[in-house]
Design a protein that fits this description.
The structure holds two protein chains of two kinds. Chain A is mostly helical. Chain A has one domain (13-23, 31-53, 73-271). Chain A has helices at residues 4-9, 12-16, 35-58, 66-85, 93-109, 117-124, 139-159, 161-170, 182-228, 230-271; strands spanning 21-23, 32-34. Chain A has a two-stranded antiparallel ribbon with strand order 1-2. Mean pLDDT of chain A is 84; it is low at 1-9. By secondary structure, chain B is mainly alpha-helical. Chain B has one domain. Chain B contains two helices and no strands. Chain B has helices at 5-138, 142-157. In chain B, α1 packs antiparallel against α2 (142-157). The mean pLDDT of chain B is 87. The chains are: A mainly alpha, B mainly alpha. The interface between A and B is large, with 45 and 32 residues.
Chain lengths: 276, 160
Amino acid sequence: MGLADTSHGEGGIAGHLQYWTLKIDESNPFMQIHLDTMLVSIVVAAGLFIFALWLKCRLVEGAPSGAQNFMESVVGFIDTTVKDNFPVHNPLIAPLAFTVFVFIALINTIDILPAFLLGNIAHLFGVEHFRPVPTNDLNLPAAMAVSVFILVLYYEFKLKPAHFLKELVMEPFTSLVPVYLRPFVMPINLILKLVEEVAKPLSLSFRLFGNMFAGEVIFLLIAFLLLGGGAIGMAAGFFVGVAWTIFHLFIGILQAFIFMILTVVYLSIAHQPVEH
Amino acid sequence: MSLDLTFIGQIVVFLTLVFLMRKYLYGPMAELMEARSNKIAEGLAAADAGKEAFANAQAEIAEQLAEARTKAVEIIAAAEKRAAELSEESVARARNEAEGIIDSAREEVHAELNRARQTLRSEVAGIAMMAAESVVEAELDASRHSALIEGIVSKGFGNA
């Protein structure tokens, strides 16, 4: 691999964990955009959309085959998952879960490409840093988790507003203290409940981000072993690399599944009817 | 590793993708699969209905067959009874006819016998007269021969 020379120099692994960034306001760290994350995610989304249009024209009502067969098994699997978890029918949930699963699984799969391949292709176009896998960028998992969280809040308020507000201030301590102490425990309840609610998107996004980030770091370590360890290092690096690629592919799909199933579960909790 | 504008951009990308997937991939496929499973369910229901109709038809056939068999047995029994009656009737009629024939034959024989007897009587009388004449010619003794004539005549009719 002739790419080793560019990879080794600039600060080892940390050098490879820089984003291709467009800074809009130097003084404000929020006012910047990761072009690599945006580019790859838009390319994947566009690819998915083109695939959807292509498949839509070829859908047959009879016995499916090929791509339609595969997608039908994915759709059927997600449909079953959603139906098993949901007490009521909501036409938005299944497509949402489907998008979450397919989008994350596809993006995670990019990670099995050779570690420096996309980065070095980007170098050819004069881009200094390029992170090929958008799920390694906290922005994408956080964006999805927050979108899901906002949806959860929306349904909580829409379907059972009184119950949700009551839960915010009355759980878990109110019933355990005398009546005159209740106003004093309400703020504590509120704080605990807020922590509980905020933990949902946080855990959702950090789980995916952490898994994929760690996976990439290990890929980079293996790549350094492969490129810098002589003949034995190369042989060892190759086999370890192949093994980790297979394992990481599994992790990627597993993380997509976990993100999807948690999305469904959080939304189904919001849809649960109030028990009296 | 901090959040920045990419976060906003990713929310837009994600929500757009959800919308597009719902409209162009998940929606059509779910609809198609639903339509297909409905069709399969309809087909299975139709197959079940057909099977049931077949079973009903078979049961009906068996019932009708049994009914027909019973009726046939009845008809055969009636026919046999009628045949027996007819044969008895004809035997009785034949017997009556035979008896009639025998009776008329007997009457005829009787009449014939009477006629013959009559003829014989007149012939015997003639013969007696002739015999008498010949006797008279020889010797006419009424007292002696009347007994003889009487004897001849009664001998001629003795068996009548």
